[in-house]
Amino acid sequence: MHLILLGAPGSGKGTQAELLAKRLGYTHLATGDLFREAVRGGSELGRLAQSYMERGALVPDEVTIGLVRERLERANPTAQIVFDGYPRKWVQARALDELLASRGEKIDAVILLNVSTPILVERLSGRWVCRAQGHNYHLAFHPPRVAGVCDVDGAELYQRDDDRPEVVQRRIAVFLREIVPLIAYYGAQGVLHEIDGAQEIEAVHRQILSVGGIPKAGSPPRPA
Length: 224
Ligand code: ADP
Ligand code: ADP
Hints:
The chain is an alpha/beta fold. It contains 8 helices and 8 strands. It has a domain at about 1-25 and about 80-115 and about 170-210: Rossmann fold. The strands form 2 sheets. The protein has a 5-stranded parallel β-sheet with strand order 2-3-1-4-8, with helices on both faces. A 3-stranded antiparallel β-sheet has the order 6-5-7. A hairpin with a 5-residue loop joins strand 5 and strand 6. Helix 4 packs parallel to helix 5 (about 90-100) and helix 6 crosses helix 7 (about 165-190).
């Protein structure tokens, strides 16, 4: 079963994808994390991606779709994937459907995390991210056990350059524009579920499991 988390920057996609990976064994595919990895590696892709990311603009579709294609080719054929930050545009959604169809697979559920702009801004201004694997924390809402250190792998935490207020405004505006055709696309497929993403982290997680039809960890498999 493959799942997509849609939502504005700061809506909780990364946090929820991490929980699905940890508790239910999902493979977490986050294009933002893949781009940040490429930036750190100093590759040509990294330099190109950085020139868009620092402005809060989207990386061109051909590049992004190519990256997802490559990542899917490397994925275990039995992996259940949670897509975080992809697709962000209608063309990307269509390309993903084609990529999955060529493997005999499809998207089973798309979850839209609804969060108002003032809450997004508050979350992004307090977001701290693990340098090793991108685990997400918040100074007030989801603090690490030791300040500045990732609970999972002990790596240093940092604040993203593009979480500065002026870039955040731009990223939210891009989201509001591109989400409209995505809602229409997945709505027409009958796979879209909206959730109030302003609830606390565990409540959002429980709702994703229930609306997405995802069996909880340790529960018996459903009949085929
Ligand atoms: P957030 O978690 O705050 O929503 P991401 O880490 O997903 O942000 O993305 C950071 C940046 O990486 C985006 O602002 C954009 O520049 C680039 N990016 C990530 N995913 C995509 C995508 N699907 N299409 C184009 N650009 C993307
Ligand atoms: P996204 O991947 O959509 O950009 P994140 O998962 O990185 O969003 O969350 C943004 C920030 O808000 C992080 O600092 C995270 O710890 C915090 N956060 C995520 N979900 C919640 C929630 N339900 N309530 C409060 N804070 C949250």
